[in-house]
Specification:
alpha/beta, FAD/NAD(P)-binding domain, five-stranded parallel sheet, globular
Length: 382
C-alpha cells in the first residue's frame, strides 16, 4: 500500500526533500508539497536588488512545475497540524499523511522593537531591498545603519554582506566619504557560532571599508533619528535597514512541537522530532551542535537536511535501515561588493569546535555563488 508523504514548505529543504523522495520512490507513493506561494525566490539573491543586479520578481522557480515530476503541489496556507490524527489542515481541507516533513521556515515579528515599521526598511524582503535601492541614489551625507534586531536570524553573513554592497554603491555614487555606514547588532562578533577568529576576519573586511561596527547592542527602540539600546547607548542614524526578529510560524505555536527556544527540537543527525514519522528541517527546526548551540539558519544546511530526511523515509519504506545522517556541513558565499564574494565552508558538528574556512573575497567566489544558484534551480525546476 502506498504511503503519503506531506511536505509543509517549499524552500531549500522542502524542495530538496520532495525531489529526492520522488526520484527514490515508486509512483504508488504520493509526495505532496504545500506552499502558499507558487513562485520560489532564492533568499540569497534578495541583496542583489540593492545594487540593481537583480529586479524584484526576476528569475523565480515555479512550484507548479513540480507536477511534471510527479510531485503534487498545493498552493495554500497551512492552518493547523493535528499530530494525534496524522492530519494537516491546509486552507479548509484536511490532508492525511504517513510521513510529515515540516519545512515552514521562519516568520518576522514586526511589532518589536518599537518603531520598527515606522522608521526602518526591512532588509529581509524583496520590497524592502527595493526601497533601499531607490533611496541610495539620493543619499549625499549622513549615517546609514544596518540593524540586527534580534537573534537568531537566517543567513548569518547577510547583514555584513549588505553593508559591503551598500558601501560599494555609495563609492560608485561618489558620496562614500560623506556617509557614515554602520552595523548595530546584538552579536558579540560576526558568525558567532564559529568563534571569535571567524568574526575577526569579517570585522577586518568591514574596517577596510570604513564600516563602523557596534556589537553586543540589543535595540529596544528605533526613533526617527536614533537607536536606543538596552545597554544605554543612543546611536544616531538617518536611515535604518533592518534585519527583523525571527519567530516560528504561528501555525506551529499550537502544534505542541515547539520547545522553550521557540523552535522545533530535533535529533541533530536525523532531524526527527519526538513525534513518530514527523521531521522538521530548515529555519523552523533547532538541531544542535555537540556543544549545545542551535545550528545557524541557512539554505544550504536546510537543503542537506531535506536530503537526509528524504533518504531515511525512502529507506524505511523500502525496508532498509535508516542510515542517512546530517553531518552539519555547508557552504555559503558572503558578498563583499564590486562583484566579489568570499566562500565560507563550515562543519558545525566538528569536535571540539566547529571547523571553518573563509576564503578572501574574489570574482571567482562570486561566480561560485552564481553557480550555486543556477545548479539548484535546474535541479529543482529544470
Amino acid at each position: 500500500m502506498g504511503k503519503n508523504i506531506l511536505i509543509l514548505g517549499g524552500g531549500f529543504g522542502g524542495l530538496a526533500a520532495a525531489n529526492k523522495l520522488r526520484k527514490g520512490l515508486s509512483s504508488e507513493h504520493t509526495v505532496t508539497l504545500v506552499d502558499k506561494q507558487p513562485l520560489f525566490f532564492m533568499g540569497l539573491t534578495k541583496l542583489w536588488i540593492l545594487n540593481g543586479r537583480r529586479q524584484v520578481g526576476q528569475n523565480p522557480g515555479n512550484r507548479t512545475l513540480l507536477a511534471k515530476r510527479g510531485i503534487n503541489f498545493v498552493e495554500r496556507e497551512v492552518t493547523a497540524i493535528d499530530l494525534a490524527n496524522l492530519k494537516v489542515r491546509i486552507g479548509t481541507e484536511r490532508f492525511a499523511y504517513d510521513y510529515l516533513i515540516i519545512a515552514l521556515g521562519a516568520d518576522y515579528s514586526l511589532g518589536s522593537p518599537k518603531g520598527l515599521t515606522r522608521y526602518a526598511k526591512n532588509m529581509y524582503t524583496e520590497s524592502g531591498c527595493a526601497e533601499i535601492r531607490d533611496l541610495l541614489p539620493s543619499v549625499r551625507e549622513g549615517a546609514l545603519t544596518v540593524l540586527v534586531c534580534g537573534l537568531p536570524f537566517k543567513c548569518p553573513p547577510a547583514p555584513y554582506e549588505a553593508s559591503m554592497i551598500i558601501d560599494d554603491v555609495l563609492r560608485k555614487n561618489g558620496v562614500r566619504d560623506k556617509v557614515k555606514l554602520q552595523i548595530v547588532t546584538p552579536e558579540a562578533h560576526p558568525l558567532g557560532i564559529l568563534g571569535p577568529e571567524a568574526g575577526k576576519r569579517v570585522t577586518t573586511l568591514l574596517a577596510s571599508r570604513e564600516i563602523a561596527y557596534y556589537p553586543s547592542q540589543k535595540v529596544i527602540e528605533i526613533r526617527q533619528k536614533s537607536i536606543l539600546t538596552e545597554e544605554g547607548k543612543e546611536i544616531p542614524h538617518d536611515a535604518i535597514f533592518a534585519v527583523p526578529i525571527h519567530v516560528a510560524p504561528s501555525v506551529l505555536k499550537n502544534s505542541r512541537l515547539l520547545d522553550e527556544s521557540g523552535w522545533i527540537p530535533v535529533d541533530s543527525a536525523t532531524l526527527a522530532t519526538e513525534v513518530s514519522n514527523v521531521y522538521a528541517i530548515g529555519d523552523c527546526a533547532a538541531p544542535k551542535t555537540p556543544k549545545g548551540a542551535i545550528l545557524p539558519r541557512a539554505g544550504a544546511l536546510a537543503e542537506e537536511q531535506g536530503k537526509v530526511v528524504a533518504q531515511n523515509i525512502i529507506n524505511e519504506i523500502q525496508g532498509a535501515k535508516k542510515s542517512a545522517a546530517f553531518d552539519g556541513q555547508g557552504v555559503c558565499f558572503m558578498e563583499a561588493g564590486d562583484g566579489m564574494a568570499a566562500a565560507l565552508r563550515a562543519n558545525f558538528y566538528a569536535q571540539p569546535n566547529p571547523k571553518w574556512e573563509l576564503e578572501p573575497p574574489s570574482e571567482d567566489g562570486f561566480r561560485q555563488k552564481q553557480n550555486f544558484l543556477e545548479d539548484r534551480m535546474k535541479a529543482w525546476f529544470d
